[in-house]
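SEQUENCE-TO-STRUCTURE ENTRY
===========================

Backbone structure tokens: a row of integers, each naming the local backbone shape at its residue.

Task: work out the structure tokens from the sequence, keeping to the layout shown below.
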Amino acid sequence: MAKIPFTTWYGNLLTISTPRAMTSQPRGLVLHISDGQLGKNRVKQVPNLMGLAATFNSTNFPAHFGIAPDGTIAQYIDTSRQDRATERGTDWFSVECCVFHGEPLTDSQVTGAALLFACLREEYKSFELEEADSTADSGLAYHSLFLTAAEKRDPKKHSNCPGPLVIAQRATIIERARTIF
């Protein structure tokens, strides 16, 4: 698949490399959030797709995709390459959703995630359109699922990513994904 046709290619903005090849049998899609920050006057500033590229370059932990609040989908890494966004999840695709921590995805992001999940499933046929609730499962997973017990206590490890509201939205994402093909 390499580049998903309905995404906007942002791979040219990355200054880091993703040298490892992706497996031919990926296990699904992992949801992440790229948390915003409080700006002047405590106004919430949600990251944008260009900002995700800058974050990936500075942390060296890029995801394959990003979804803006309006549902626009960016692609940062060719799907034939592994990302580094998920600990011990080297056979998964990852998507960073631009949302403030503790808030749900927008309806447009839910629809974008469903489209992405359905298209990846249609292309690879190596996972089902279902929730992954353990690292042994396949389907639609979330970042903190891949953390060890010790890592979940470490605030630097994103133990609440993507947060309970986004995790709960997986059922809606899957429901919408099942209507696409």
Q: What stands out?
A: The CA atoms of residues 71 and 107 lie 8 Å apart. DSSP finds five helices and eight strands in the chain.
